[in-house]
Amino acid sequence: GGDNTDAIYYMCPVDPARRYRISGNRGDSVYFSMTAYNEPSPGAWSDRIVAILRDDDLDIDDDGNFTFDFGPEPDAAVLMTRDYQADPLVGRPVTWTIEALDPPGPFRHGEAETAAALRASAAWLRTMFAIVPLAVGVKNTDAHGLGHETAMAANDFADPYQVPDANFGWSARDACYAYGSFDLAEDEALVVTHRPPGCRFWNLVVWNQFMAVPGVSDARSSLNGFTAVPNSDGSVTVVVSRGTTDHPNSLTTLDYPRGNLAFRWFLADAVPARPEVRLVKVAAAPTAVT
To answer: Does the pLDDT at position 143 exceed 60?
Structure first.
């Protein structure tokens, strides 16, 4: 899945026939959840959310501690935890402990099991390399009739969408996503404006074509609803460029000329409207909120 500077993820394979006890502490999380996903065939990416437990489903004590049991859950192959932080540099992450309550079955290891594991690994890698590097749209304004949920033209976003129970990969059921791409000359910038819906958390991240954020300590390639400075009407404008600008919501691609952009909105009241994007010269980009 795509990099996210505001989140901490853990994955844990599970046996659908066994019971587990999961406990921890919520720390400074603004949203956390645990999602169970299927594995349609060995090594295949998940195509269905089997179960989800989020923070507001749990009994959390005054100290932030929680405990719950999970399973047996038919079709559950892996658990993924999500921990979203307003400021992950200083926030206390969610702590997780998992304990199997049922004994495991006999461990079998031989040529057949090894061959099956290698085939599953190869299947997983084939899917990964069919996806990355991510495509970057064409830098023009021609209309396109192809594509699903991803803008075909660079410097634009596709329409946001709510994740259904049937998915591909390990998407978050509570999320709305919108993806776009950028193709910028050194003197160009994208001015991205959107109106966040009522939601628990949202962010915008800059990705390279391998879904990684170009993270450095002295620049910023992502922002969220807690760090963004809104306009007077409640909308948020972000300026994306290959360097940095004076705008308070300036994001840098770290001089990558081409790459991708990802919006996430969690527990949104409604699917957001499509973000508005303008391609401008850096010299003409706004330097303050409106």
So the answer is: no
Domains and CATH numbers, the chain: 7-100 (2.60.120.1600), 156-284 (2.60.120.1600)
Distance of CA 6 to the CA centre of its chain: 9
* Residue 43 CA neighbour count, 13 Å, CB half: 14
- End-to-end C-alpha distance for the chain, whole angstroms: 34
**Pick from 40, 36, 213: which is nearest to 127 by CA?**
40
Q: List pLDDT tens digits, range 26-81.
A: 999 999 999 999 999 999 999 999 999 999 999 999 999 999 999 999 999 999 99
Rounded to 5 degrees, what angle do the CA atoms 207, 244, 84 make?
45
Residues 202 and 218: their CA atoms lie apart, in Å, by: 22
Buried b (16+ CB within 10 A) or exposed e, 212-247: ebbeeeeebbbbbbeebebbeeeebbbbbbbeebeb
In 3D, which of 144, 133, 158, 146 has the Cα closest to residue 258? 133
Q: Which helix (H) or strand (E) is 117 found in, with range?
A: helix 111-131
pTM: 0.89
